[in-house]
Structure of D-alanine--D-alanine ligase:
Amino acid sequence: MRAPLNTLHVAVLMGGLSSEREVSLSSGRGCADALEGQAAKVTRVDAGRDLAQVLTALKPDVVFNALHGKWGEDGCVQGILETLKIPYTHSGVLASALAMDKDKSKAVLRAAGVIVPGGGLFDRHEVASRHVIDPPYVVKPNAEGSSVGVFLVREGANRPVAEVGAADWAYGDQVMVEPFIAGKELAVTVLGEATGPRALTITDITPTKGFYDYEAKYAEGGSTHVLPAELPPHVFDKALRQAELAHAAMGCRGVSRADFRYDDVNDVLVLLEINTQPGMTSTSLAPEQAAYVGMDYRELVRWMVEDALCPR
Protein backbone atom coordinates (compact mmCIF):
# COMPACT_ATOMS: atom_id res chain seq x y z
CA MET A 1 0.00 0.00 0.00
CA ARG A 2 1.32 3.46 -0.86
CA ALA A 3 0.07 5.21 2.29
CA PRO A 4 -1.75 4.47 5.56
CA LEU A 5 -5.52 4.41 5.24
CA ASN A 6 -5.91 7.43 7.51
CA THR A 7 -3.97 9.57 5.03
CA LEU A 8 -6.06 8.62 1.99
CA HIS A 9 -8.98 10.31 0.30
CA VAL A 10 -11.32 7.55 -0.90
CA ALA A 11 -14.23 8.26 -3.24
CA VAL A 12 -16.90 5.58 -2.76
CA LEU A 13 -19.03 5.22 -5.90
CA MET A 14 -22.57 4.03 -5.25
CA GLY A 15 -26.08 4.17 -6.66
CA GLY A 16 -25.50 4.64 -10.37
CA LEU A 17 -27.80 4.10 -13.31
CA SER A 18 -28.62 0.39 -13.33
CA SER A 19 -31.54 -1.71 -12.12
CA GLU A 20 -29.34 -2.62 -9.13
CA ARG A 21 -29.15 0.96 -7.87
CA GLU A 22 -30.73 0.31 -4.45
CA VAL A 23 -28.40 -2.61 -3.69
CA SER A 24 -25.43 -0.46 -4.71
CA LEU A 25 -26.51 2.33 -2.37
CA SER A 26 -26.62 -0.19 0.48
CA SER A 27 -23.22 -1.64 -0.44
CA GLY A 28 -21.71 1.81 -0.78
CA ARG A 29 -23.00 3.05 2.57
CA GLY A 30 -21.54 0.01 4.33
CA CYS A 31 -18.14 0.39 2.67
CA ALA A 32 -18.01 4.14 3.30
CA ASP A 33 -18.87 3.63 6.97
CA ALA A 34 -16.14 0.98 7.28
CA LEU A 35 -13.53 3.29 5.74
CA GLU A 36 -14.56 6.25 7.88
CA GLY A 37 -14.32 3.98 10.92
CA GLN A 38 -10.66 3.52 10.02
CA ALA A 39 -10.03 7.29 9.74
CA ALA A 40 -9.96 7.52 5.96
CA LYS A 41 -11.26 10.69 4.34
CA VAL A 42 -14.34 9.47 2.43
CA THR A 43 -16.45 11.18 -0.19
CA ARG A 44 -19.68 9.38 -1.05
CA VAL A 45 -20.48 9.78 -4.75
CA ASP A 46 -23.88 8.91 -6.20
CA ALA A 47 -22.43 8.18 -9.63
CA GLY A 48 -24.09 9.78 -12.65
CA ARG A 49 -23.20 10.76 -16.19
CA ASP A 50 -21.04 13.59 -14.85
CA LEU A 51 -18.79 11.16 -12.97
CA ALA A 52 -15.61 12.17 -14.80
CA GLN A 53 -16.12 15.83 -13.94
CA VAL A 54 -16.97 15.01 -10.31
CA LEU A 55 -13.86 12.89 -9.82
CA THR A 56 -11.65 15.42 -11.59
CA ALA A 57 -12.79 18.03 -9.07
CA LEU A 58 -12.50 15.70 -6.05
CA LYS A 59 -9.01 14.34 -6.91
CA PRO A 60 -9.31 11.21 -4.71
CA ASP A 61 -6.31 8.97 -4.05
CA VAL A 62 -8.38 5.86 -4.80
CA VAL A 63 -11.92 4.94 -5.84
CA PHE A 64 -13.92 2.25 -4.08
CA ASN A 65 -16.33 1.10 -6.76
CA ALA A 66 -19.48 -0.11 -5.00
CA LEU A 67 -21.61 0.12 -8.16
CA HIS A 68 -23.51 -2.93 -9.42
CA GLY A 69 -24.93 -3.81 -12.81
CA LYS A 70 -24.69 -2.04 -16.15
CA TRP A 71 -22.40 0.97 -16.52
CA GLY A 72 -20.82 0.55 -13.08
CA GLU A 73 -19.82 -3.10 -13.39
CA ASP A 74 -19.50 -3.71 -17.14
CA GLY A 75 -16.29 -1.83 -17.96
CA CYS A 76 -17.77 1.64 -18.61
CA VAL A 77 -16.92 3.23 -15.27
CA GLN A 78 -13.67 1.29 -15.21
CA GLY A 79 -12.76 2.97 -18.51
CA ILE A 80 -13.45 6.40 -17.01
CA LEU A 81 -11.21 5.60 -14.04
CA GLU A 82 -8.44 4.32 -16.30
CA THR A 83 -8.61 7.52 -18.35
CA LEU A 84 -8.40 9.63 -15.19
CA LYS A 85 -5.54 7.45 -13.89
CA ILE A 86 -7.26 6.87 -10.54
CA PRO A 87 -6.62 3.50 -8.82
CA TYR A 88 -9.88 1.63 -8.21
CA THR A 89 -11.14 -1.54 -6.56
CA HIS A 90 -12.30 -4.74 -8.29
CA SER A 91 -11.68 -5.90 -11.84
CA GLY A 92 -10.47 -3.88 -14.81
CA VAL A 93 -12.17 -2.93 -18.07
CA LEU A 94 -11.85 -6.22 -19.95
CA ALA A 95 -12.70 -8.61 -17.11
CA SER A 96 -15.65 -6.43 -16.06
CA ALA A 97 -17.09 -6.27 -19.58
CA LEU A 98 -16.52 -9.97 -20.15
CA ALA A 99 -18.13 -11.10 -16.89
CA MET A 100 -21.22 -8.97 -17.53
CA ASP A 101 -21.79 -10.73 -20.88
CA LYS A 102 -22.98 -14.18 -19.86
CA ASP A 103 -22.60 -15.71 -23.32
CA LYS A 104 -19.03 -14.54 -23.90
CA SER A 105 -17.91 -15.32 -20.37
CA LYS A 106 -19.25 -18.87 -20.69
CA ALA A 107 -17.14 -19.33 -23.82
CA VAL A 108 -13.99 -18.17 -22.00
CA LEU A 109 -14.71 -20.29 -18.93
CA ARG A 110 -15.47 -23.38 -21.00
CA ALA A 111 -12.17 -22.98 -22.89
CA ALA A 112 -10.33 -22.77 -19.54
CA GLY A 113 -11.80 -26.05 -18.35
CA VAL A 114 -14.58 -24.68 -16.14
CA ILE A 115 -17.84 -26.64 -16.34
CA VAL A 116 -20.67 -24.29 -17.40
CA PRO A 117 -24.34 -24.87 -18.39
CA GLY A 118 -25.52 -25.59 -21.91
CA GLY A 119 -28.12 -23.48 -23.66
CA GLY A 120 -27.41 -20.22 -25.44
CA LEU A 121 -28.72 -16.86 -26.62
CA PHE A 122 -32.18 -16.54 -28.20
CA ASP A 123 -34.34 -13.69 -29.45
CA ARG A 124 -36.61 -12.67 -26.60
CA HIS A 125 -39.74 -12.71 -28.77
CA GLU A 126 -39.04 -16.30 -29.80
CA VAL A 127 -38.53 -17.24 -26.14
CA ALA A 128 -41.84 -15.57 -25.29
CA SER A 129 -43.70 -17.48 -27.99
CA ARG A 130 -42.44 -21.05 -27.57
CA HIS A 131 -40.20 -23.38 -25.56
CA VAL A 132 -36.81 -22.99 -27.26
CA ILE A 133 -35.44 -25.86 -25.14
CA ASP A 134 -37.28 -28.50 -23.16
CA PRO A 135 -38.41 -27.47 -19.66
CA PRO A 136 -37.21 -27.10 -16.99
CA TYR A 137 -35.05 -24.14 -17.98
CA VAL A 138 -33.99 -20.69 -16.82
CA VAL A 139 -34.38 -17.47 -18.83
CA LYS A 140 -32.25 -14.46 -17.91
CA PRO A 141 -30.91 -11.26 -19.44
CA ASN A 142 -27.51 -11.68 -21.03
CA ALA A 143 -26.07 -8.62 -19.28
CA GLU A 144 -27.70 -8.08 -15.88
CA GLY A 145 -26.82 -9.20 -12.38
CA SER A 146 -28.50 -9.89 -9.01
CA SER A 147 -31.07 -12.21 -10.65
CA VAL A 148 -32.80 -9.21 -12.23
CA GLY A 149 -35.24 -10.33 -14.95
CA VAL A 150 -34.70 -14.06 -14.29
CA PHE A 151 -37.49 -16.60 -14.83
CA LEU A 152 -37.68 -20.30 -14.06
CA VAL A 153 -39.83 -22.42 -16.40
CA ARG A 154 -40.63 -25.60 -14.55
CA GLU A 155 -40.94 -29.11 -15.93
CA GLY A 156 -44.35 -29.66 -17.51
CA ALA A 157 -44.99 -25.94 -17.98
CA ASN A 158 -47.57 -25.32 -20.71
CA ARG A 159 -46.49 -21.83 -21.65
CA PRO A 160 -43.15 -20.10 -22.18
CA VAL A 161 -42.09 -16.84 -20.50
CA ALA A 162 -44.41 -14.26 -22.02
CA GLU A 163 -42.90 -11.48 -19.89
CA VAL A 164 -39.68 -11.33 -21.92
CA GLY A 165 -41.68 -10.36 -25.01
CA ALA A 166 -43.38 -7.41 -23.34
CA ALA A 167 -43.03 -3.91 -24.76
CA ASP A 168 -41.53 -2.65 -21.50
CA TRP A 169 -38.83 -5.36 -21.31
CA ALA A 170 -35.66 -3.36 -20.60
CA TYR A 171 -32.90 -5.96 -20.70
CA GLY A 172 -32.01 -6.38 -24.36
CA ASP A 173 -33.42 -8.28 -27.32
CA GLN A 174 -31.39 -11.44 -26.69
CA VAL A 175 -31.80 -13.53 -23.56
CA MET A 176 -29.85 -16.45 -22.17
CA VAL A 177 -31.75 -19.72 -21.91
CA GLU A 178 -30.11 -22.51 -19.92
CA PRO A 179 -31.26 -25.91 -18.68
CA PHE A 180 -32.33 -25.70 -15.05
CA ILE A 181 -29.98 -27.68 -12.84
CA ALA A 182 -31.72 -29.04 -9.77
CA GLY A 183 -29.86 -29.20 -6.49
CA LYS A 184 -27.89 -26.82 -4.29
CA GLU A 185 -27.22 -23.13 -4.92
CA LEU A 186 -23.58 -22.49 -3.97
CA ALA A 187 -21.36 -19.41 -3.88
CA VAL A 188 -17.58 -19.04 -3.54
CA THR A 189 -15.80 -15.75 -2.82
CA VAL A 190 -12.30 -15.36 -4.29
CA LEU A 191 -9.60 -12.85 -3.33
CA GLY A 192 -7.10 -12.08 -6.08
CA GLU A 193 -3.93 -12.06 -4.02
CA ALA A 194 -0.36 -11.52 -5.22
CA THR A 195 0.34 -15.25 -5.01
CA GLY A 196 -2.76 -16.08 -7.06
CA PRO A 197 -6.52 -16.33 -6.54
CA ARG A 198 -7.59 -17.64 -3.11
CA ALA A 199 -11.07 -19.08 -2.65
CA LEU A 200 -12.36 -18.47 0.87
CA THR A 201 -15.11 -21.02 1.47
CA ILE A 202 -18.51 -22.13 0.14
CA THR A 203 -22.00 -21.03 1.12
CA ASP A 204 -25.05 -23.20 0.47
CA ILE A 205 -28.00 -20.87 -0.16
CA THR A 206 -31.64 -21.86 0.30
CA PRO A 207 -34.34 -19.32 -0.62
CA THR A 208 -36.97 -18.95 2.09
CA LYS A 209 -39.59 -19.40 -0.62
CA GLY A 210 -39.43 -20.17 -4.31
CA PHE A 211 -36.53 -19.23 -6.58
CA TYR A 212 -33.27 -17.48 -5.60
CA ASP A 213 -34.33 -14.16 -7.11
CA TYR A 214 -33.52 -10.51 -6.37
CA GLU A 215 -35.65 -10.43 -3.21
CA ALA A 216 -34.19 -13.69 -1.89
CA LYS A 217 -30.69 -12.29 -2.36
CA TYR A 218 -31.15 -8.95 -0.64
CA ALA A 219 -34.23 -8.94 1.59
CA GLU A 220 -33.75 -9.73 5.27
CA GLY A 221 -34.80 -13.35 5.73
CA GLY A 222 -35.02 -13.92 1.97
CA SER A 223 -32.67 -16.89 2.16
CA THR A 224 -30.77 -19.04 4.64
CA HIS A 225 -27.03 -19.56 4.39
CA VAL A 226 -25.18 -22.70 5.46
CA LEU A 227 -21.52 -21.80 5.93
CA PRO A 228 -19.49 -23.76 5.17
CA ALA A 229 -21.67 -25.77 2.81
CA GLU A 230 -22.17 -29.41 3.74
CA LEU A 231 -20.77 -31.15 0.66
CA PRO A 232 -18.77 -34.27 -0.12
CA PRO A 233 -15.06 -33.39 0.25
CA HIS A 234 -14.33 -33.89 -3.46
CA VAL A 235 -17.15 -31.49 -4.41
CA PHE A 236 -16.07 -28.89 -1.85
CA ASP A 237 -12.51 -28.91 -3.15
CA LYS A 238 -13.63 -28.89 -6.78
CA ALA A 239 -15.84 -25.82 -6.24
CA LEU A 240 -12.95 -23.91 -4.64
CA ARG A 241 -10.55 -24.82 -7.45
CA GLN A 242 -13.11 -24.05 -10.19
CA ALA A 243 -13.79 -20.64 -8.63
CA GLU A 244 -10.07 -19.84 -8.56
CA LEU A 245 -9.65 -21.05 -12.13
CA ALA A 246 -12.58 -18.90 -13.26
CA HIS A 247 -11.20 -15.79 -11.51
CA ALA A 248 -7.86 -16.26 -13.29
CA ALA A 249 -9.35 -17.16 -16.69
CA MET A 250 -11.54 -14.05 -16.70
CA GLY A 251 -8.65 -11.81 -15.67
CA CYS A 252 -10.38 -10.66 -12.47
CA ARG A 253 -8.65 -8.78 -9.69
CA GLY A 254 -9.71 -7.83 -6.18
CA VAL A 255 -12.81 -9.70 -5.02
CA SER A 256 -14.99 -11.89 -7.21
CA ARG A 257 -17.74 -14.40 -6.50
CA ALA A 258 -18.47 -17.60 -8.40
CA ASP A 259 -22.05 -18.91 -8.37
CA PHE A 260 -22.61 -22.64 -8.81
CA ARG A 261 -25.36 -25.23 -8.94
CA TYR A 262 -24.62 -28.68 -7.58
CA ASP A 263 -26.83 -31.58 -8.66
CA ASP A 264 -26.29 -33.86 -5.66
CA VAL A 265 -28.26 -36.69 -7.24
CA ASN A 266 -26.04 -36.97 -10.31
CA ASP A 267 -22.91 -35.45 -8.69
CA VAL A 268 -22.63 -32.62 -11.24
CA LEU A 269 -21.15 -29.22 -10.36
CA VAL A 270 -21.75 -26.34 -12.81
CA LEU A 271 -20.52 -22.75 -12.59
CA LEU A 272 -23.35 -20.37 -13.55
CA GLU A 273 -21.51 -17.05 -13.63
CA ILE A 274 -18.79 -14.84 -12.18
CA ASN A 275 -19.67 -11.65 -10.33
CA THR A 276 -16.79 -9.15 -10.46
CA GLN A 277 -18.35 -6.78 -7.90
CA PRO A 278 -20.14 -8.87 -5.29
CA GLY A 279 -22.60 -7.16 -2.99
CA MET A 280 -21.34 -5.66 0.27
CA THR A 281 -24.71 -5.33 2.04
CA SER A 282 -25.61 -6.76 5.43
CA THR A 283 -26.95 -9.93 3.75
CA SER A 284 -24.19 -10.30 1.15
CA LEU A 285 -22.15 -13.45 0.73
CA ALA A 286 -18.63 -12.03 0.27
CA PRO A 287 -18.38 -10.29 3.66
CA GLU A 288 -20.02 -13.27 5.33
CA GLN A 289 -17.44 -15.65 3.88
CA ALA A 290 -14.56 -13.29 4.70
CA ALA A 291 -15.74 -13.16 8.32
CA TYR A 292 -15.80 -16.96 8.42
CA VAL A 293 -12.09 -17.11 7.53
CA GLY A 294 -11.21 -14.40 10.06
CA MET A 295 -11.47 -11.17 8.03
CA ASP A 296 -14.18 -8.89 9.37
CA TYR A 297 -16.08 -6.36 7.25
CA ARG A 298 -13.71 -3.47 7.96
CA GLU A 299 -10.67 -5.61 7.22
CA LEU A 300 -12.18 -6.79 3.93
CA VAL A 301 -12.90 -3.23 2.83
CA ARG A 302 -9.38 -2.16 3.81
CA TRP A 303 -7.92 -5.09 1.88
CA MET A 304 -9.87 -4.04 -1.22
CA VAL A 305 -8.50 -0.49 -1.01
CA GLU A 306 -4.96 -1.79 -0.48
CA ASP A 307 -5.35 -4.13 -3.44
CA ALA A 308 -6.51 -1.20 -5.61
CA LEU A 309 -3.32 0.66 -4.72
CA CYS A 310 -0.99 -2.22 -5.61
CA PRO A 311 1.15 -1.54 -8.70
CA ARG A 312 -0.17 -3.30 -11.81
